[in-house]
């Protein structure tokens, strides 16, 4: 039975898949805007703390759960820590599906910008409103282009393209995933290295790098900076949604998960570092102002810089195309993992076929992606979010992203640390580890991480009390959304978790 679940052909296949999962929109789009928002150099001390204190130990734990049980996240939690832990596992799977819905929507827009490179997006100096493959007309900026793209129905077409690619890659599980990541992961490294070399060799590019990496101790006292760094780290390393456990469950029992965690985190944060250099160098060279929403930096500030990268039109277009192609492939190798986590969980528990599991996931998530790309303008001034889709995306992201990952991280540490016993996991990991873990690991899992996460989660909730997120923007006719979305998410995800935990299961 268990052999049918699939397995990686090689250790390299696993490392490529897991690092491909980790490296995605988080490393390019979200990291740079977080780092900017939280003050460049002020960000990276909390960031390193987040990496060593939270990220690495939790990745070891999530990888370890996969090889130890040979099962995906909810069932691994059930086997190691009982049914109540399984409930949290399913809740995280539900949240993964919410995130998948809007993650694919963002990829759809990136795809749209990539298409735009063949049309009017990257004409040096000018950028026309969105019209795929059209000739340039006179106009303002990449921002205009982006928002006029959002105001068409084209992104709906693009998300179907992205969903199609995801399902194609996932259709035979590990076999097809491995084939895709062998091509995409090296390619995205290549393009990113090209971009950073170009960025740093431009006049003034180095100053951007300095801004990003000069420590700034002033921001360190700000709780928001820490919360930003923690969430960023969880998201970037693909933790807290069952992804890494699913991928690790396809490895042989004797995999060295300490080493694998070090390798995957190193690759992920290395990529993030290079991406940060590339983006900040462009910002400084062209004195661009990255103010605005999370997406603005990658979707229209950087394209603006790319417009001026060269006076030779085809080179500009090529750079523009490659930048969005890079985002699309980096995002694809992540979105497949976001879908594989839930798919593996459903296959394991319900003993259904892969095709059926993928259908159960894809249908509601695709509807979610379409909702996030609805081009209805709700905010004419574009002060808030512009389109209905973008508002839905933004509010969903606020709740699911800020809370699910950290709450699941907290609960899994408590479950593994206190119910199973952190020492049991540590000894199991050490059995095959070249660098065995010391007792400090138990202390981190049992006390340090839960305390840090609980503090951050509670302080975030405390700050929510004054006004519901998103209620400050007048979304003509849709002002019920800021309340509806969090309620919908909680009811649906908790109901889903309850239903699946209740389902009978024999191993
Ligand atoms: N890590 C990916 C990124 O940086 C996104 C991602 C994939 C993810 N799987 C995940 C995030 C699981 C959280 C949990 O873009």
UniProtKB/TrEMBL annotation:
Matches recorded under InterPro entries: Na/ntran_symport, SNS_sf
Keyword Nucleotide-binding: no
Annotated localization: Membrane
Transmembrane segments: 12-32, 44-68, 89-122, 142-169, 181-201, 229-250, 262-288, 314-336, 357-378, 398-420, 440-461, 481-501
Membrane topology classification: Multi-pass membrane protein
Keyword tags: Membrane, Transmembrane, Transmembrane helix, Transport
GO cellular component, one term: membrane
Entry-linked Pfam families: SNF (PF00209)
Name of the featured protein: Sodium-dependent transporter
Species: Neolewinella lacunae
